[in-house]
Amino acid sequence: MLKFDNVSMRYPGAGDVLRNVSFHLERGEMAFLTGHSGAGKSTLLKLIAVIERCTRGRVLLDGENLNQAKDRQVPYIRRKVGLIFQDYKLLQDRTVFDNVALPLVIAGYGHHEVSRRVRASLDKVGLLGKEKKYPLVLSGGEQQRVGIARAVVNKPPLIVADEPTGNLDPELSAEIMHLFEQFQQVGVTILIASHDISLIAQMNHRILKLDHGQLVAS
Ligand SMILES: Nc1ncnc2c1ncn2[C@@H]1O[C@H](COP(=O)(O)OP(=O)(O)OP(=O)(O)O)[C@@H](O)[C@H]1O
């Protein structure tokens, strides 16, 4: 489903941030991406969302080489990837409903379909009933659930999360991880960057470990 084939990445003026990284995630697999600060975790995730492009090698999503994607194809590739961030990246002046609806509105869905899908998505993350609230009145855990609802609202086959529990306490972090597992159980592929070793250790999933840009365990 997602394949890295000898991928190296270098930012202009810097050395290699990723070096000959190869791995394959099967459909429905859930894996953690770990490693020290600066190891290249965020960079690896950015290649999947085509926020950056690799310098050497191939990143394949459903067999499509992301490095060769034309700029006009990028929005369609991104619809296959639900992105989740540490700081949630919610629009503070929009309600929970509007935040979750955003990807569907951009994709041109009609009002009725948007409403149906947003409610289904909020239901999955346990936030039905909070549609009219603004993000700032929600707890950190609830805000991250809104971020997850937005990421899954158009049913992407792949979820990519960058330190999704970085701002949450251990109990809320575990809840968010169990939420990811529920998506995995219905066939979604999930890759989560995290340096929370104790949390990762509690969960029985594959661990990809980066050390100075090299994959040292997978
Ligand atoms: N846009 C950029 N331009 C130049 N160098 C960059 C850029 N983004 C990241 N880097 C460098 O690439 C290296 C890897 O950064 P990256 O953010 O991928 O690491 P990380 O493992 O996600 O770290 P952290 O856990 O601290 O978020 C670091 O040395 C960083 O300074």
UniProtKB/TrEMBL annotation:
Protein topology in the membrane: Peripheral membrane protein
Domain of life (superkingdom): Bacteria
GO BP, one annotated term: cell division
InterPro entries: AAA+_ATPase, ABC_transporter-like_ATP-bd, ABC_transporter-like_CS, ABC_transpr_LolD-like, Cell_div_FtsE, P-loop_NTPase
Ranges of residues in domain ABC transporter: 2-218
Function noted in UniProt: Part of the ABC transporter FtsEX involved in cellular division. Important for assembly or stability of the septal ring.
Classification via NCBIfam families: FtsE (TIGR02673)
Similarity field: Belongs to the ABC transporter superfamily.
PANTHER family linked to this entry: CELL DIVISION ATP-BINDING PROTEIN FTSE (PTHR24220:SF470), IMPORT ATP-BINDING PROTEIN (PTHR24220)
Identification of the protein by name: Cell division ATP-binding protein FtsE
